[in-house]
Amino acid sequence: MKPLYVFLLCSIILAALAIAFPDLLLSPGPLLKGHEKLNTSCLSCHEPFGGTTTARCITCHKPDEIGIRNTVGDLLPKDTARIIFHKGLAGNSCKECHTDHKVADASKAIRTFRHASLTTALRKNCRACHKDQIPDNLLHRYAKGNCSECHTTKKWKPAAFDHKQLAASDAGQCISCHKTDRPNDNLHRQSDANCAACHGTNRWKPATFNHDRYFRLEGDHRTSCRTCHTTPGDYKKYTCYNCHEHSPSNIAAEHRKEGIYRYDNCMKCHRNDSSGKRDD
Prior knowledge:
The protein has 13 helices and two strands; from the N terminus they run ααββααααααααααα. It is mostly helical.
């Protein structure tokens, strides 16, 4: 029986010491700054055999005052994001982000924050919390949608940008973002057209440019784009008179003699070097 008495005596002594000095015998580490006064008052945050609870947290941290006042009622520097964020949380979610007793890492969450804890309205307003994380570049200045339209809640990259998010006035400014994507070849150096005239928004290739659909560039017609297309950026307009020394009046007379009255679109009949030969 003697060993049993020794065991019981030791247990009573340990229990007494744990009650008298919980910060030394039970605490896994120092508390956060601001919680130091609770070092020997475990039951302020912990329920016996129940751990920490949100109910204990909000006895000091009033949900409606988070980001506005501290626990003693003093006004805090204005932090609109924190106010909006905490007002959009479920009432029992403190422990999902906050912990203590972890010394230098005490400000870090035990678990990754779950956006599912937010209200539907706040989940659609990422900028309320992440405004300082929005990159200052052309793409993010143009894009007016919500972050979640491109980014996931797990990490910022990879992102799945949808060009449909751009305003109509910005959608035609491809080169503003894709300047470094532009190939340094003769075709692209000569072209003043918007990228979207040939490329889709899913990938660069395949591109839809095919000059043969309109006119086959053969023989002497292998020339600069600007020779025929004199209006920068508008390749629907062209002229043949920069090389073919016809006068408009002579062209009109020749075509009317043949009974052709719709001759304003040369390419409709003259599709290659065989001048005067229809190639429909």
